[in-house]
Fold each of these.
Amino acid sequence: MQKKEIVAMLLAGGQGSRLGILTKHIAKPAVAFGGKYKIIDFPLSNCINSGIDTVGVLTQYEPLKLNRHIGIGIPWDLDRSYGGVTILPPYVSDVSVAWYSGTANAVFQNMPFMDYYDPEYILILSGDHIYKMDYEMMLNCHKKKKADATIAVLKVPLDEANRFGIMNTGEDNRIIDFEEKPNKPKNDLASMGIYIFNWKVLRQALLDNEKRHDDSDFGKHIIPHLLNNGKKLFAYEFDGFWKDVGTLEAYWQANMELINIVPEFNLYEPYWKIYTKNSIQPPQFIGSEANLETCILGDGTEIYGEVYNSVIGSNVTIGKGTIVKNSIIMSDTKIADNCYIDRTIIAEECNVGEGVNIGYGDYAINTELPNIYESGLTVIGEKTWVPSNVIVGKNCALYGKLENENFISNRLESGENLIIEEVEE
């Protein structure tokens, strides 16, 4: 068979712990976005739009929903007899039994997959960013400069640069130094976690680093290793929309930006479509007493109340007298009558009883996880049942089949969590 010019390796095994209860039983790339998509749809769509038809998806944490979503790759035209999309979980071999312990270690463990196609180039992608990018343009730049590796970078405010891997460049954007989350950044070019390598160069670097590091990582180990060995690394500057939705506030903000009159990140461009797996749903229904302003509605949604400045997934029901504001309601969720919901993220397959008030009261720091629930958003995990007539404050997390007796006087104050694990019989 003819070998592939380029193979993409899509890292999709992360937990996304900073998304709190949203990723309790689901990998971050499988989290819903924009009313109808999953986060992983964006890099997968970028691949096929860029002419890349061979993608390995490296999974690990809670992969079931992600695997079901990707399937054999039909929505992205990746159901190919040679190439296409392949799910690559950790596996047992005759020499090791190991989980993926770093980004480069995950790719190292799947060297046989890449060797099978014997590509000229390997594209490394993260499965948890929202953006549109033509990887072919980056590859052309890589070829033109005869680079060993090319790293996509994005200019960030200098006072935020310490949160990223920073590329210090010289003439013609050649990388002369790399700093992982430096205390005093010298530059504002942040790594996007998108790399193109010559396969022979990367293969040798993976072999060399696996001998030294059990948790081999691209930023910490592979990039410095290549620089120290005199390889030619170049920065490819990207000037489009790119969002790391790694925190609840960033995730919520990225969704809210979609409903601007002229969104910075436009999902409606016909020349660069974002593909996804769509279930068969009936049309939307808007009741006679409903009122909607500036929102996204998924297929099969029934609105009998009021929705303002919100993103609503498919097959959602919002009852009479209910007001939803500044919120994200994911697919297959039912909200009963006479509720008030503000600055709330409700995951898939939830049920909210009558007369529930969420997002009520004054701001308070979350008592258990202040670094996750810090922006005033209240988050409800998937398949949660919220009983009728309860009041829930800000910066709260709820999960499980909750009953009125789980609340104190039918209230959950701001900054408190109520998480009830199901007990297996």
Amino acid sequence: MIEVRNISKSFGEEQILKNISLTFERGKTNLIIGQSGSGKTVLLKSIVGIHEIDEGEIIFGGQVYSSMDRKEKQKIRQEIGMVFQGGALFDSYTVYENVIFPLRMFSGMSKKEMNKRVDFCLDRVNLQNVNDFYPSEISGGMQKRVAIARAIVLNPKYLFFDEPNSGLDPKTAIVIDNLIKEITVDFNTVTVINTHDMNSVAETGDNIAFIYNGQAWWTGNNKDILESENKELNEFVFATKLMRSIKK
């Protein structure tokens, strides 16, 4: 479990996050939604430690991150898998080299053990016979799956996704949603997903946090969201669905 307790974050005089408290459960897909500029990306990056919060606590498995020593923080970082928007693969590395990279950096595995782990992770995301391809030689959906394979290669306890369906067609987006859901259950991870894709919300939203003007404005699940009377949430959901229909 990850707990976020009363966290705030400002950049200069602009306060982005305002006293947010949330809980992200293990074995479930925990979604963060909200319009552009709401603070959801800053929230995600604050949880993983890219941004340092001004106030509050972020708690991983009962341990307060800010109270940890350097060694304890390093251990938590190695238990985190992150898939950035766009995948963030190394263009000059092959698929194999991208996925094995964290193992070379952080594991004590032998070459044989690392190869076996890479093959397992690529197979888990339904990718075979692509080890020697470069990112530019495979589709956007395949690139996202390679990024997921790299994120799980160290068998993390915590998985974070920033707009995993960005740039994907609806059919491929469903494949990625299903894959993330399956991995979350199979690996029993705490999975946190920053998304604006309402299909993802409807299909995979075990827990949903709606961020509005830097605050946790509404929480619930994908069934609750259909019956919500929260004005700002309903406006966001309607506007998002409307934009999707226009783009189609």
Amino acid sequence: MRKDVYISGYNCITPLGFDAESNWRALAEGKSGVCFTQPADSREAFYVSAISNERLKAEFEKQFPGQHASRLEKMLLLSLKPLAERHTISENTALIVSTTKGNISLLKNQPALPEGVFLSGMAQKIAAFFGFKTKPVVVSNACVSGVMAIAVAKNMIRTGKYKDAFVIAGDEVSEFVLSGFNSFQALADGPCRPYDKNRNGINLGEAAAAVYMTSEPDGNEQFSFKVSGDSAINDANHISGPSRTGDGLFASIRNAMDEAQVSSEDIDFISAHGTATLYNDEMECIAFHRMDMQHIPLNSMKGYYGHTLGASGLLESIMAMESALKNMLIPSKNFKDPGTSQPLNIIKENKTADIRYILKTASGFGGCNAAVVLEKTLN
């Protein structure tokens, strides 16, 4: 008999707040973490969404006195700690870590590979902090990593080997990542504008997020969301450019909805990828139209957080679940005039809504695409 798997806890560390509730309040008030700033290890200033080094250091020293960790590890540990304290970590508890670049900033000006630069080593360090008894799993598949990590956790629990799982995701703004996107001429010259006709690129951002997933709810949950369906498809279109026909995203959405046994009429809200690049947003538009989903309220979180890479899918899923719990749709920040070839129902202002089914999508370099359907089962 197939097990149902639920998300019943989450937390996040972002420039807008160090827990989910403060992040939600900031979003509801229209606040954004994106500003013109010079990241710690960068030679230039860009429009990015960066976490305060001072606050991160203070919070880490308060929560983990006497411990040492890289900047990214501090973010990940702080995001996971409240969940790890609330739930028992047993021999049947999995840990899944999502990131695209991990501790890559540690490589700067180093003659040899420093400890923690390997993703497996970083994941094992996180596991050791909390006493996980199983070997951590790393999901690093470009910008779909966060969404895929949810699916990996669900499928690991369904094997019967694991009772529950913690999924954490994080990336930081580094000179390496900035220079890479800058070489693509993909960085916006101001706050990004997903789906807008004047969009001209992304803002990078940094965040860490964590969720707790289980097949055995204990009845004390304040909320739960069933992971009803998921899928990841690679259309192998290009090393960095999205498919012009939206094939991979279309297939991912279709498969996830088929597993969830829902139709486009059942979906109440789409938390889309929406990077604000010319081709990504157009590709998503085409895929949503092919699924007959152009009427469904949709937003992108990139105008609030920037593109947080491996954290984006998990962080945006958390904020989508907050929307469902609060019965409120948040606008796609900085959107004014439609800029895709076909219309979409872009959310322009805060408005109340009854949200049961959420579709979360993501797309990334190398032709990867992913989708997950979340169903609110307890509020």
